[in-house]
């Protein structure tokens, strides 16, 4: 990266740009990314919403350089010029993903290290056997609610519920509280009329949990956070809990839903998986490569003028990390399945200091959810044509809105 050249239009001067959501809502995202690459190179200007432009980073090495260079690219949205100058409306749909909150996710440097350590330490201290039993029980319980019907929506009734019950369980919360937590988060991040109520419910559940663990410690994440010297007060503790709960929710839901979608719509994928030629972890990795849960990830903010892949990035510009595009970068990935065995250089977890701390746990939740569904739902098939599966509207993810299925009966519960 070199100092910027004169005479190139700035990001905000560019008009008629491709909306970022065009890359997630179209049938063939890689075709959309290729078009952007052909026109702009590895860093393309896109429109986040009318009048709000950002750079979309498409190249694998370019993303790695950015996320590993905190001195030049901050995670803190206070450095985003359009946010600081209040060009972005306070009720913009970008808010839930891009507006700052006081936690590790939106911090850099020493503050990030201090707030990140409790997350890493807490996760490392979890009993994985206990966790896997808890997740399997949650999956089995959910399947039992729709099994008698012989039909289900595997997104709304399963993929979108399992992660919250699992993450709530990591904090030692009951299934019932896990459901309440999910409703609270949906209301809070939906920014509708019930957003305030959602926030209050979330705070009530978390405050009660903190008080309960203070009186009666356990071996869960809430207790680990309470004991951690880096978290200085209940506010930081609560923010760390909200971060874990919200960061783990949509990502894991999308991973489960995408894997189930591929099984139900791509006979070659399903055949390889059911026929034993593709192990479940390889299947999950294939999804992380082909359709990473975060297709486009917000964001890093330039702290100085610079050039990235020839584009004139100005101080305060936002850079979106195009993980799905970067995963198809021919510099790191071939189309030969034999050469790709064991290749985990994808960016689904990002890289650098903010890389996902819960890779083991996210994989465990997804593996158990997919495995339980595979074993329990016998002869499961989609009950609508594959082309009718729509995606939830989002510039960040490509999560199926629903997966209506029918099955003949339920099989035995797989071993934990
Ligand atoms: C299972 C699928 C998951 C995927 C694909 C995923 C992906 C990611 C990615 C890409 C980031 C990095 C963002 C960046 O560089 O800006 C991230 C950060 C994070 N993830 Fe995950 N995640 C998953 C599950 C989870 C779960 C289950 C949890 C919690 C239980 C979690 C907690 C977090 C946290 C706390 C961060 C912020 C870390 C920091 O800023 O230092 N994730 N995740």
Automatic annotation (TrEMBL):
Region spans: Disordered: 1-22
GO molecular function: heme binding; iron ion binding; monooxygenase activity; oxidoreductase activity, acting on paired donors, with incorporation or reduction of molecular oxygen
Highest taxon above the source species: Bacteria
CDD domains registered for this protein in UniProt: CYP_unk
Family: Belongs to the cytochrome P450 family.
Listed name of the protein: Cytochrome P450
Phylogenetic placement of the source organism: Bacteria, Bacillati, Actinomycetota, Actinomycetes, Pseudonocardiales
């Amino acid at each position: 990266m070199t100092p910027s050249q004169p005479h190139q239009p700035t990001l905000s001067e560019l008009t008629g740009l491709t909306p970022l959501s065009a890359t997630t809502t179209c049938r063939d995202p890689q075709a959309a990314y290729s078009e952007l690459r052909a026109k702009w190179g590895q860093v393309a200007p896109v429109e986040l919403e009318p009048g709000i432009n950002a750079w979309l980073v498409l190249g694998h090495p370019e993303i790695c350089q950015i996320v590993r260079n905190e001195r030049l690219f901050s995670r803190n949205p206070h450095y985003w010029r359009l946010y600081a100058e209040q060009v972005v409306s306070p009720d913009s749909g970008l808010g839930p993903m891009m507006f700052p909150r006081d936690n590790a996710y939106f911090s850099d440097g020493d503050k990030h290290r201090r707030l990140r350590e409790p997350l890493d330490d807490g996760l490392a201290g979890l009993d994985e056997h206990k966790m896997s039993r808890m997740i399997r029980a949650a999956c089995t319980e959910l399947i039992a609610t729709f099994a008698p019907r012989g039909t289900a929506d595997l997104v709304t009734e399963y993929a979108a519920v399992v992660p919250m019950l699992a993450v709530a369980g990591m904090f030692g919360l009951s299934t019932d509280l896990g459901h309440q937590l999910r409703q609270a988060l949906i209301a809070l991040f939906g920014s509708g009329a019930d957003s305030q109520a959602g926030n209050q419910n979330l705070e009530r559940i978390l405050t009660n949990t903190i008080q309960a663990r203070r009186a009666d410690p356990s071996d869960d994440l809430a207790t680990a956070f309470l004991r951690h010297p880096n978290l200085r007060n209940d506010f930081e503790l609560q923010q760390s809990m909200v971060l874990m709960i919200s960061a783990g929710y949509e990502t894991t839901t999308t991973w489960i839903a995408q894997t189930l979608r591929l099984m139900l719509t791509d006979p070659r994928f399903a055949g390889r998986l059911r026929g034993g030629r593709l192990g479940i972890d390889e299947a999950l990795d294939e999804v992380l490569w082909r359709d990473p849960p975060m297709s486009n990830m917000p964001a890093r903010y330039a702290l100085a003028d610079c050039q990235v892949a020839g584009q004139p990035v100005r101080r305060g510009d936002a850079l979106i990390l195009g993980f799905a595009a970067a995963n198809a970068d021919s510099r790191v990935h071939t189309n030969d399945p034999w050469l790709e065995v064991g290749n985990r250089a994808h960016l689904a977890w990002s890289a650098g200091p903010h890389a996902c701390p819960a890779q083991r746990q996210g994989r465990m939740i997804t593996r158990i959810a997919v495995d339980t569904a595979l074993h329990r739902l016998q002869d499961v098939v989609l009950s609508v044509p594959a082309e009718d599966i729509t995606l939830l509207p989002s510039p960040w993810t490509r999560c199926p809105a629903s997966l209506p299925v029918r099955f003949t009966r339920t099989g035995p519960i797989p071993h934990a």
